Q: What sequence folds into this?
């Protein structure tokens, strides 16, 4: 689905992504792991159009999407979430979801004046869609809560819900477990698995919680120093000497530490 070829992103003289090549298969939940500073988030940002690549190529379904801005990728079904959730804090959870789809009728002055019936019908449909999403994520009890009052984990669920409002094809999740308690993380994991199996979503997940990665992800890709080191099952990754060196710098004698990371 996504093919990344020799991708490079430099900041001044620093190569944050250094010739990375990888493939994301349609219908997979792919884990992206690596030590801090490995280039994982920068890779996400380049694929998702937040940063322009210095060199290299990205294709989606055979179409060259290299350097396209986020709003164009959004309309192609490629979405990306962030380590820190972004929400409209003064709006309700339901309203946050209803804001997601683009080109809504009420956005034009003409329709605001003369197309009120159409706007009302569209809002009813969006509201129904939002209610469906909230029920799917089991957070319908938060429907009318101000988004700014949500916990960190609830905000991550809200971000996942946003992707459902536009029926995304591929979603890049950046540290979805950061600052989230275990109960909510399990709820998020359940939702990701259901979206993958029931609705055909493709996911790429950056995460440091190896239990979460093991539960959800196959394959797993490991990065270090801007490069792709290895790809395979999590068990294969944990047994890879290059991966162990990247995490620990001391080789196989400390491989048990990686298993507990």
A:
């Amino acid at each position: 689905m996504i093919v990344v070829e020799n991708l490079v992103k430099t900041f001044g003289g620093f190569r944050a992504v250094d010739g990375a090549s990888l493939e994301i298969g349609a219908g997979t939940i792919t884990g992206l792991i690596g030590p801090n500073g490995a280039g994982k988030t920068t890779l996400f940002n380049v694929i998702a159009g937040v940063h322009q690549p210095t060199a290299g190529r990205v294709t989606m379904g055979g179409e060259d999407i290299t350097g396209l801005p986020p709003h164009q990728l959004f309309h192609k079904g490629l979405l990306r979430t962030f380590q820190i959730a972004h929400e409209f804090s003064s709006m309700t959870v339901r309203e946050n979801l209803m804001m997601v789809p683009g080109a809504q009728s009420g956005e034009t002055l003409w329709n605001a004046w003369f197309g009120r019936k159409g706007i009302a019908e569209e809002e009813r449909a969006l509201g129904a869609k939002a209610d469906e999403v909230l029920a799917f994520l089991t957070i319908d009890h938060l429907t009318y809560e101000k988004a700014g009052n949500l916990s960190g984990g609830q905000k991550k669920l809200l971000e996942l819900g946003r992707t459902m409002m536009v029926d995304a094809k591929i979603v890049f999740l950046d540290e979805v477990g950061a600052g989230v308690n275990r109960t909510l993380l399990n709820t998020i994991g359940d939702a990701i698995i259901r979206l993958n199996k029931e609705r055909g979503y493709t996911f790429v997940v950056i995460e440091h919680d190896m239990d979460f990665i093991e539960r959800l992800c196959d394959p797993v890709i490991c990065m270090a120093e801007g490069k792709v080191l290895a790809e395979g099952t999590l068990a294969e990754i944990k047994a890879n000497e290059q991966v162990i060196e990247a995490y620990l710098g001391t080789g196989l004698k400390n491989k048990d530490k990686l298993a507990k990371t």
